[in-house]
Amino acid sequence: MHKTVSDAVTTPTGRQGKAFHLLWAGETVSLFGTQITLVALPLTAVLVLGASGPQMGLITAAGWLPVVLLGLIAGAWSDRRDQRRTMIFCNVCRAVLIGAVPLLSSLGLLTVPVLLGLAFVTGCFSVFFDVAYQTLVPLTVGSDGLARANSRLEMSRSFAQLLGPTAAGFLVVQFSAPGALAVDAASFAVSAACILALTPLSLRQKVSTPAPGRGVRGLRADLAEGLRFVVGHRPILLVIVAGAAANLFTAGLMALHVLFAARDLQLSPRVIGVCLAAEGAAALIGSALTARVIRRWGEPRTVLAGLALLTCGGFILAATTPAWSWAGFAAAQFAFGFSSPLINIALVTLRQRLTPEGVLGRVNAVARVGIMSSLPIGSALAGAASGLLTNQGALGVCAVGLAVVLAVAARPLLGVGRAG
């Protein structure tokens, strides 16, 4: 396996420590706002606009489609531009777009097509932000500090998952579903301010700057270099294929679970928020344990453990009935939450460690496109399946699909571990 050459210390200190903590603080606030949107946006579609299952699938797909269309370009852009400026610009734009939802709703101008468009454009800026973010983190801590840094970031995500949905349920009840989205808009503004305070001098090396005179031809060459690296690196390629297959069915679960809870299980927004908070509690526990699990089992086995828990959560959700609605829904969210840091931290840490810094942005982008390209497809297909079957039937299909992926991917992923 390829090794990343680095002289970084194991923990961020001095200016590097300040850089990471600024980045961490801004992302923590933004993650909290995002968790509110993950509850308030689908509830806006269901409760305010009366969206159907197929429409919910399309709204979810619209948010993921930019990853497929722009992911590779975002990677090359990240390696050729100042990541800080890219992230600040994207956060300002996302604040405006998310803030437009409550405004349009109050004016009676919000419709399902408008919500689709806003989700798509917001997703475009998210693609550029996320690739730049993953590229910037190693510059604040170095290779040896990545597992710890990623664990801290995942722990922030877990705290947001714990507190955000409960807050979202309260905000939806008090101010309406569209009104709750104003909190996410404000969180993007706070994140932009934190990144603005992150100076290049605080990083382990200078952030990327434009390569002079390369133009479109140079951009194509950059994209081709990233693709060649991934295609020629069998461990990363195997992880991407397994992740894409799992995401095909995970997207279906995520597209339909709030609709299923609100319509089929008849849960109120406040109860839905509390149940979704179980995902955050589990993710918090998982975040605290994942670095230790990776040290003992290695990244590939950690990913498999996460996939197994994710599959269990899918079956629990599909089997939930109104007789035990909140308990089944909360149990499924707990399984989803515990699996998330196991999969995310292991995948990101493995990819960052194996990739040279010069192509890290492009490789991050190729991996994101490969792993996440199935998300819009899975969301749309699950929405269509809910129209042909039922919401519960479509969830059952997704759970069975995850079980098949786990069975097929086990041996190749274990082979990656032996190769390492």
Automatic annotation (TrEMBL):
Pfam family, one: MFS_1
Domain Major facilitator superfamily (MFS) profile: 236-420
Location(s) in or outside the cell: Cell membrane
Bilayer topology: Multi-pass membrane protein
Residue ranges of the TM segments: 21-50, 56-76, 183-203, 236-259, 271-291, 303-320, 326-348, 369-388, 394-414
Name by which UniProt lists this protein: MFS transporter
Organism: Streptomyces monticola
Keyword Protease on entry: no
